[in-house]
Amino acid sequence: MQVALFVEGSEAPPRRRGKAPLEQIWTDDLGEVLDLHEFDPIIPISKKHLVAMDPEKPKMSGAGEALDQMIVRYLAKSPFEAAVVAWDLVPAWNPEGKFCRFNETLNLYRFLADSQYLPCLWVEQAGRRYRDLSSRPSPGERESPPSLVAGMVLALCMEPMFETILVQDEGGVLRSLEIKERPEGWPRQGWADPKELHPDTRVLAPAVSAARRIRPKLKAVRQVPGDMRTNKDGWGEYLLRGLLADPTSRPVVLEQPLVRRLAEVASRS
How much is the pTM? Predict the structure, then answer.
């Protein structure tokens, strides 16, 4: 079965030789470790594409097309049979907001089931999924994980965001960067902190900035252009690859809820 991945990430990721960082993350790094189905195509999105499906919300600046419209557009370009949609729970424009992963997932299926653009099969599958979720006595009560079948969208809400899996082992990040001790400007807080809602800007961004100031230049700095603001996916891929290659950090990454849900996707596709 050909499965597309619509995933939060850069719209125009800087490229090294071969695949873009976003592709490397989901096919080479997590894909190989979890034996994931190779997603094809992989389409970067932002949470704004999901919000744009809500008819009660005003149109957001830079939102562009809604997710259901995007799915239809890519179905026409490169047909696929099912899709995984992965997005950050906490949006960049509201880092202090209160969000619920179950409610976000429920709303995604509700909007897809109400779509005026998706093919009938996709609308019907979204409706079935919405009814299943909304009828549960509690979010965690289910008979079994959903399977990826034709017309199915499998939601993967990343709580609070993808970069959470990269900040659970500070020592592993230092080792990935080949740094023996914390350099000047290295963040002391936020590592493995369940209350940290923006590990990208508050933990990884200052860590990468501190690494970039080290002289002589680190191998990572020579290989990954830019910083966390200009090349978030590139740094995320480099650190993820290093953590997965580290025998101490690897099990920490694999125990994260997001990674466990990805393993579930692999088992049901």
Answer: 0.92
Average pLDDT, the chain: 91
Predicted confidence at residue 154, as pLDDT, reads 94
On whether the CB atoms of residues 7 and 42 are closer than 8 A, the answer is: yes
Euclidean distance between CA atoms 173 and 242, whole angstroms: 8
Contact (CB, 8 A) for 164 and 258: yes
The string of pLDDT tens digits covering residues 174-191 is: 999 999 999 999 999 999
How far is Cα of residue 176 from the mean position of the Cα atoms in its chain? 21
Place of tokens 């592993």: 172
pLDDT tens track for 221-237: 999 999 999 999 999 99
Tell me which amino acid residue 268 is. R
| Radius of gyration from C-alpha coordinates of the chain | 19
C-alpha–C-alpha distance, residues 142 and 215, integer Å: 53
Give the pLDDT confidence of 81-134 residue by residue, as tens digits: 999 999 999 887 776 778 899 999 999 999 999 999 999 999 999 999 999 999
Residue at 231: amino acid letter: N
Q: How far is 20 from 65, CA to CA, in rounded Å?
A: 23
